[in-house]
Amino acid sequence: MKDPAKIEDYAFLSDTQTGALVSRDGCVDWLCLPRFDSPACFASLLGKKENGHWLFTPKEKVDKVSRRYRGDTLILETEIETAGGAVRLIDFMPPRGKNPDLVRIVEGLRGEVWMEMELIIRFEYGSIIPWVRKAHEGLEAIAGPDGLILRTPIETRGEDLTTVAEFTVKKGERLPFVLTWFASHEEPARAINPEHALRDTEKFWNAWAQQCHYSGPWKDAVKRSLITLKGLTYAPTGGLVAALTTSLPEGIGGVRNWDYRYCWLRDATFTLITLMRVGYRDEAKSWREWLLRAIAGSGAQMQIMYGVHGERWLYEREIPWLSGYANSKPVRVGNAASNQFQLDVFGEVLLAMHQSHVAGLQTDESDWRLQVQLMRFLESNWDQPDEGIWEVRGGRKHFTHSKMMAWVAFDRAVKLAQLCKCAAADNVERWKKIRDQIHAEVCERGYNIDKKAFTQFYGSDALDASLLMMPRVGFLPPSDERVRGTIEAVERELVRDGLVLRYRTEEENVDGLPGGEGTFLACSFWLANSLHLIGRTEEAKALFERLLTLRNDLGLISEEYDPIGKRQLGNFPQAFTHLAMVNTARILSGDEKFPTGET
What we know:
This protein is α+β, with helices and mostly antiparallel strands. It has 2 domains: 7-207, Beta-galactosidase, Chain A, domain 5; 211-588, Alpha/alpha barrel (Glycosyltransferase), CATH 1.50.10. It contains 13 helices and 28 strands. The protein has a 15-stranded antiparallel beta sheet that branches. Strands 26-27-28 form a 3-stranded antiparallel beta sheet. Strands 16-17 form a two-stranded antiparallel ribbon. Strand 24 and strand 25 (499-500) form a beta hairpin. The longest helix is centred in the last third of the chain and has 21 residues, at 400-420. The chain is globular.
């Protein structure tokens, strides 16, 4: 069996309800239908080709492959050259209504190329072989609740539980293949015109990209990241998934493999703020409404993540029949971290509510009542240990970042109350007192005099890159010697080959998991921000430029990076990393102002 494609060798397609990954050699190895968190029908990314894929390849030797996105879109163009000619694969998913389509057009560019197609459909994460028949002017595959229909003018045949085709394509010819999902108890949707769909898809993405307000020196990188974030957004509700995939490993062969096809409140808040600041007010408004719906109810019941429709039950289980990416087991579906207690999300939610109000998304009375419920719960629970921003599974601790973000919650609640004049005076005065109490406690118990730095949790000497956020949220100003000391300590102890680890996984077994991981890319962007804030702007820009080189040829990036193996790690494409990239570009361009750090 050949080695799996590297994570960075994949391209991302999306119809803003689900997405696909296409390898450099023209194979769709991951596709969940009809939505991001549905069971995969192509799962060879996490197993073998027998778990489902869709491949187009020339029969003769390939001399060269190149690819690109068409303009500011998610239309992928892969050019394949052979001795006898050249073809272009045009792959895209039209933004849709009810039924998702994956369209693949094979276009002849030069000479004549003999092509092969191999389509292996396996529902339920590569485990269910469908019943296949010719019907409705196409080839239908049905099993359980799912149906797929392939429509193409090319003759196909069945061979060893696989649909195959062989055909030639000459210069100027364009041969379409359209794969459409439908509920198996219904008839397939009417066939689309692939050329019209291509035109409409290109128009959709270009129009969306033109709304971007950022015009700084990294405009192309920012726009590509924003397009990726739009592609990870579930259009019907406005929710943003953290990544397209599950179980791509944080260390090859390791067990740190998680399902990221859900909506984290942390990502929600940073996304909301970012979209507002670069011109996407409608998306920001939809995301804010998703956020408010998801957390509605008792503050004690607020989760750190939800499904794309706001589902709360994200039961974690293992998929034993999949061997895992590069034999990285287990493959997980669902995420048990949804049941964790993480204090920082309260700060991030209130930060987003305050920023959105300032930007013109006004807080009404019902919104405010919900936020008061959250603050009432936090008043009684901010002093409790939690699992923290990194979702550790080694037991709750008094994480310094969590306490800092609890301070942010009270600070922004006070500011929001003063702006919208919604709160009773006694609430505001009580929140001010708690805010000051938390600030004093963090400065006393979270700071290590010997390290001259804030540490991961109270009483620890371990470092944590999340504390690079301290000046950005206004807890202390960049000029404070404790902030500078923390930045310098992170540089000394958490930087590997110029990139930043979240924390040292081997220290004190804080996360309860064996093995290590790569450098965490969002933290590396945070270091660039921090260097800029303390006046080391040239170093910050140099780090940022290096981080941009870690993207693949299409501008996509995952969660982590292995500086030894020189490859991307973790789920892909990763929303949190793309968000950090956009924000750092804005910071280094002078587009963002920060709180003063005064309470």
